[in-house]
C-alpha cells in the first residue's frame, strides 16, 4: 500500500488526511502548529507526527507527499519532495511563476514521478460531464466559455481574487478547451481600504482556435456563485455547483442562418435536458487518481504536471496584465 505523508493540516489538509487515511497508508502528518499537530496525532495514531518537513523526507519508505500549506511555500516543498524521489500532490497553485512550475515538471519527468496539482474541480462529476459533451461534439463548435466565481468572503491578504478563486475556473476552461491562450487580459481593483491585493478581477482569454473565455472573480458579492457556461453552435450547457440536484443543464439553443432570408441570423430554442450527475466526492476521486498514477495506472503520469504548468503560465500572464506590464 502506498505510504503517504500529509503536510499542512490547516484549512484543507484535514480533508486530504481523511481521504488518504481511507485510501492508502497515512504514514506521516506534518504541521508547524504544535496544537494542531497534537490534535491530528490523536486522530491518526498510526501516523508519525512531526513539525519538521526534513524529518518526514528522511523516511526512505515514504512513497508520496501531499502538500497543503500556504501558497508561497508550495514550490519549495514540492521541489524538495521530488528531488528526494517522492510523488507529489500539491494544492493549487503548485507555484506562482511559470519558471518554477517548469522546474517541477522537469523534476517529475527526470525521475518518472507524479507531480499533480490539486485542481479539484476537474474531478467534479459535473465538470466531467461538461468535458464529455465538449469532446463528443454534442454542443457543436464551442464558441465561448465563461465562469462566475463570486461570494462575500473569504477575504484574503496573501493572494488576490485571481490566484485564490480564478485558478479553479481557469483550470476548468483549459481542461475543456485543451488549448493554451494566446491572449490573456485581466483588470481588477483592491476595493477595500488599506488593501494591496485585488478583491475583484475580470479576465478575458483568446485561444488559437478562435474560442474565447471570460471569468468574473470576486469575494465582494451578495450572491455565492459557482457557475460555468459553455456556448456552442448547436447547444449550450451550464454547470452550476450551487444547485443541489440540477448541477448540469443542457439547452438546445443556438444561432442559425436561414438561406431563404439571405443568410440572416436567427435563434432557435428546443428541449432542456438535465442529465443525472453522480454525487461522488470530487476530492475522493482526485485522491484515487493520484494513487492510481503513483501505481503506474491511469496513463501518462507526467501529464498532470504539464497541464498544471499551462494553468500557472496563464495565471502569470493574467497577473502581468493586471499589473499593467
Description of the molecule:
Helices cover 34% and strands 30% of the residues. It has 2 domains: 3-118 and 283-302, Rossmann fold; 122-279, Dihydrodipicolinate Reductase, domain 2. It has helices at residues 13-23, 34-43, 53-57, 74-83, 98-110, 125-136, 161-177, 282-294, 303-322, and strands at residues 3-7, 25-30, 48-50, 64-67, 87-91, 115-118, 142-152, 183-189, 200-206, 212-218, 220-232, 236-240, 248-258, 264-273. It contains 9 helices and 14 strands. By secondary structure, the protein is α/β, with parallel strands linked by helices. The mean pLDDT is 95. The longest helix has 20 residues, at 303-322. Strands 8-9-10-7-11-12-13-14 form an 8-stranded mixed sheet. Strands 3-2-1-4-5-6 form a 6-stranded parallel sheet, with helices on both faces. A hairpin with a 5-residue loop joins strand 9 and strand 10 (212-218).
CATH-wise, what's the superfamily of the largest domain? Dihydrodipicolinate Reductase, domain 2
Identify the CATH class of the largest domain: Alpha Beta
Structural class: alpha/beta
The total number of structural domains is 2
Radius of gyration: 21 Å
Helix content: 25-40%
Number of helices: 9
CA-to-CA gap between the ends?
48 Å
Task: Please outline the major beta sheet.
Answer: 8 strands, mixed
Poorly predicted ranges: none
CATH topology of the largest domain: Dihydrodipicolinate Reductase, domain 2
